[in-house]
Design goal:
The protein is of the alpha+beta class. It has a domain of 156 residues: Heat Shock Protein 90. Helices cover 56% and strands 14% of the residues. The chain has a 5-stranded mixed beta sheet. A hairpin with a 5-residue loop joins strand 3 and strand 4. Helix 1 runs antiparallel to helix 4, helix 4 runs parallel beside helix 5 and helix 5 runs antiparallel to helix 6. The longest helix is centred in the middle third of the chain and has 64 residues. It is rod-shaped.
Length: 435
């Protein structure tokens, strides 16, 4: 805005100067001298005919302020008398005398040409002065507005640092008044939304705690009856197998299988509940070392499997070591399971940058999945493969999702059927967690 005002001031000054110049140019230009100047010279010429009084006559005209200077020349060109001081820019009028001499006079009466020159000089000076004043006024106005804007910006930053959004800007005047009022209105809405969000967050945290407590309690209480079912089914199979026909023995087998599955699901739910209650203690965690330990354990438990593990050195993430160990345990364990039918199985741990944030991944060349179902993978008890293809409870990836959320990160997956899968995760940043 200050630039527009400055430009307006300069334009007004230039227009004023051009108007003055136009008035001067509009005046009729006449080359002849003003009648007053001519009359003075003619009168002086008549009074210097007698050389005896020439000097005193010239001095009288100079003292009267009628002429600037005058010089009387004789017939031979010699100076007879002179008086006054010559002015370079004054009009010079020459008169021939009857005796053969001449008279040179600079009258004080201004001519039209001299007046026009004076007007042009005055207009030029006025234009230059107006431009300088306009620029100075613009600079001063710009400085004042910059200071006001800087003060307003500082107050906005102070208001934004208030986590409750309760700080407001003081009233402003002039062009900044609508801006300050708009910022205060925005802060009103932000404070209102913050109050609602805080209340909803507290309600959600309370509901999550109750749900986690309920899930842990139910899971813990279910362990005993499920264990009893599995135990009685095993006793029935061992002690009464001869009394059962094929259908009876098959039923007992299904009871044992279902009890085992239920037991695994209960253990998974208990694990999720325990992980949800862990405090996150962030530190730099060597994922490469953890992955090697998990890979070695899987090799020892399945010596017949031929699996290539690709684990680069020093892949480091910032997070809780116990929780990140659980993440890799689930991801590498899943990759190991879903490559069980793949000759030349390959499982890789790696990292990349995702929108400036370090992202870590576990990639395999196993069964893969339909990309349309990627969003379902991280829900509890969601399975993309049947039990006959690959056993499991659908708790592992849900646990990974819960842990990554606790770190302020995100998790996603990419894959295609029979072309393997890649699961990515981030752990947030130390700065975001501190904030």
């Amino acid at each position: 805005m200050e630039r527009q005002v400055a430009a307006g001031l300069v334009i007004v000054a230039l227009l004023a100067a051009l108007a003055a110049v136009g008035v001067g140019a509009w005046l009729p230009g006449r080359s002849e001298r003003d009648d007053g100047g001519t009359a003075i010279v003619d009168a002086l010429a008549e009074n210097v005919q007698k050389e005896t009084f020439a000097a005193s006559t010239l001095q009288t005209f100079v003292d009267a302020g009628v002429i600037h200077s005058a010089t009387l020349y004789g017939p031979n060109g010699g100076v007879i008398a002179t008086s006054g001081t010559a002015v370079p820019e004054a009009e010079q009028i020459i008169r021939s005398l009857p005796n053969g001499g001449s008279l040179s006079v600079q009258p004080r009466v201004q001519t039209e040409a001299a007046a026009r020159r004076e007007l042009l000089k005055t207009a030029t000076l006025a234009a230059a002065s107006a431009v300088v004043l306009a620029l100075l006024a613009s600079l001063l106005m710009s400085r004042l507005i910059e200071r006001r804007v800087e003060r307003l910006r500082t107050r906005v930053e102070e208001s934004m640092r208030d986590q409750t959004y309760a700080t407001r800007l003081p009233g402003e005047s002039g062009a900044l008044q609508p801006l300050a009022a708009g910022v205060n209105l925005l802060l009103d809405h932000m404070q209102q939304r913050d109050v609602v969000l805080r209340r909803k967050t507290l309600e959600l945290e309370s509901a999550n705690k109750e749900l986690e407590s309920f899930a842990a309690t139910v899971s813990h209480d279910l362990r005993a009856p499920v264990g009893s079912i599995a135990g009685f089914a095993q006793a029935l199979k061992e002690d009464y197998a001869p009394l059962l026909d094929d259908t009876g023995r098959e039923c007992v087998q299904w009871i044992q299988f279902s009890a085992e599955q239920m037991s695994k699901m209960i253990e998974g739910m208990l694990q999720m509940a325990r992980l949800a209650r862990f405090d996150v203690h962030r530190t730099d965690v060597d994922l490469s070392q953890i992955a090697r330990e998990i890979a070695e354990r899987l090799r020892l438990s399945n010596p017949d499997r031929d699996v290539q593990f690709v684990i680069p050195d020093r892949i480091v993430a910032n997070g809780d070591e116990r929780l990140l160990h659980a993440v890799l345990d689930n991801l590498i364990g899943n990759a190991f399971k879903f490559t069980s039918k793949r000759p030349g199985a390959r499982i890789e741990l790696g990292s990349r940058t995702d929108d400036g944030t370090p992202a870590f991944y576990v990639r395999d060349n196993g069964a893969g999945f339909d990309p349309e179902h990627a969003s379902k993978m991280f829900r509890p008890f969601q399975r993309l493969h049947s039990e006959s293809e690959f056993s499991g409870t659908g708790i592992g990836l849900a646990t990974v999702h819960r842990i990554v959320q606790r770190h302020g990160g995100r998790v996603w997956a990419e894959g295609e059927p029979e072309k393997g899968a890649t699961v990515y995760f981030t752990t947030g940043s130390r700065e975001e967690w501190a904030a």
